[in-house]
Amino acid sequence: xxxxxxxxxxxxxxxxxxxxxxxxxxxxxxxxxxxxxxxxxxxxxxxxxxxxxxxxxxxxxx
Amino acid sequence: xxxxxxxxxxxxxxxxxxxxxxxxxxxxxxxxxxxxxxxxxxxxxxxxxxxxxxxxxxxxxxxxxxxxxxxxxxxxxxxxxxxxxxxxxxxxxxxxxxxxxxxxxxxxxxxxxxxxxxxxxxxxxxxxxxxxxxxxxxxxxxxxxxxxxxxxxxxxxxxxxxxxxxxxxxxxxxxxxxxxxxxxxxxxxxxxxxxxxxxxxxxxxxxxxxxxxxxxxxxxxxxxxxxxxxxxxxxxxxxxxxxxxxxxxxxxxxxxxxxxxxxxxxxxxxxxxxxxxxxxxxxxxxxxxxxxxxxxxxxxxxxxxxxxxxxxxxxxxxxxxxxxxxxxxxxxxxxxxxxxxxxxxxxxxxxxxxxxxxxxxxxxxxxxxxxxxxxxxxxxxxxxxxxxxxxxxxxxxxxxxxxxxxxxxxxxxxxxxxxxxxxxxxxxxxxxxxxxxxxxxxxxxxxxxxxxxxxxxxxxxxxxxxxxxxxxxxxxxxxxxxxxxxxxxxxxxxxxxxxxxxxxxxxxxxxxxxxxxxxxxxxxxxxxxxxxxxxxxxxxxxxxxxxxxxxxxxxxxxxxxxxxxxxxxxxxxxxxxxxxxxxxxxxxxxxxxxxxxxxxxxxxxxxxxxxxxxxxxxxxxxxxxxxxxxxxxxxxxxxxxxxxxxxxxxxxxxxxxxxxxxxxxxxxxxxxxxxxxxxxxxxxxxxxxxxxxxxxxxxxxx
Lengths: 62, 702
Prior knowledge:
The complex is a heterodimer of chains A (62) and B (702). With 62 residues, chain A is mostly helical.
């Protein structure tokens, strides 16, 4: 049962990671370690910046 | 000896099975052959190539060093540079490289029979495409994740860099034009397809609003909402198709649809990304991965029979779908499933920024392309499970087989592929389309193939739904490529124009945005327009041009890689990239030569132009063709010059690489190898992902 739940969690985490759903969570974790004391971006601010730079280059092929 | 023998038994077994499967499909000359042999042959070839060739390249040629910190570790910023689990990187990389190319190319190449395309997909991938993706990924990772263009400039010099930039921008224009044409041909006089594809635009905008304003950053919620709405749009399209008043509005000929696609491309390029591009990209990725998995499951469950012969009479160059003999045109037509220059743009720049450890490179670079090749094999199966007569009836342009159904059927049957008008009518009724004759571009025939596979595996009653789902599936990521490609072309052009007028280089200055977008859209819009008014369907003109451009970009990537290998003192391994490069140079040059100089009007651009000019002067053309003839003549000549330009760029880069290599081997000064210095990875041993003190050979065993 616990094993089931764990693999389900891993699967869910992979889906969130692949889709970019957890991008802000990762940013917050990174921020807490690398820039302690500074105020991080809110989810909304972060997502806006993220979208602008993410679609700036070649991202899709033929 | 006995232990090593025991260890090699499974591999020998796989080799024997693979050889039997390939031998089976190559020598089979009966009524039909089971699709499972294609899948078996492909999987055996991939497993062996990955286990032995990719591993050998990684350890001996590239000398992958797991103790070395990757750019993702060194520049970790929590955003684009992030050390990421390798399965996640694999997912991102595959989603980025897999587009409509591997689906359309094999479908068109099936006119030669299943064998030439299948063999090239398998051999081209394991010896060419996978190698290109993997070495580009490796070299970019060793160079802080630099792009192909930057690597070409650093390693070969300004000439190579300029060629890579021009190559990228031209391939983008041709690719968008041909993909736009595929969508237009799929929507032509099909209210169901047109309304479904139209509905994807407001759905994307809605999802964009959801993810930006309602629930910022909740990507999954937005995507699930969008996917549900897309499926509803497929069903809703059927309702519109049966509604007498609404269906007229969506029942359009090619030209208005082409203008709509052009207007859409322009709007999408100047709108902010969050409104259309970003949400559409999320949706298309989900639909794409889902459908590819579904198709693989359906083929395995159903095990359909491939009815196309191994070789058709059209290997002599007289094929109705596109002109040209099997050599060199099969190698140009199956572009993306075997080797695709476009992938080197993803393998450099985007993917290296996520790589946790160099040992993941074979799996992501080589393995990602193997999966893409597998998609191409499935597309080949989907095209060849159709009755050959039906396949040719769908894909042959009206200009070749005749406008009337009876003429087309008589012509195709006379080639030895029997088909009847009733059979085609029944099929189009089942698929919910008015007609399936002359639906060129590959998308409708792929959709019919997919619908019959899905229909047999998951319920026959829903054929029309499956067909339009398949059309929506192709259209949504073609339109994503169209949006994204136009925007990238716009950035490149703005960057270029900024050299002359600095203000035009500002990517957010509105007049510059509008000007650059209009230029890019105008360029591909022109080819799209010509493709639509061409009575031969346009795909037979544009697809070879795209194939040549794509292989040219692949040759540039392989040249850069070969140059780096030689400059790093690995001359004896230079054949790893040099051999596919030589083959591409031969194939692309031969194809370009024929497209330019062939006297056959179905192959040579200039021959076709002068033939049409003579007919126009003699007044033998029917009035509706005489009207567009001057434009077609100009376009054929333009295509001829463009082909010449591609081939000049190709040989410029190859000769530049040979010049740099020759200078290096003779001790003359060359641009230095731009690899960054070694920095030890601190991630080794982290989270069980790697073993402390792992050596170069370790990854081979896991």
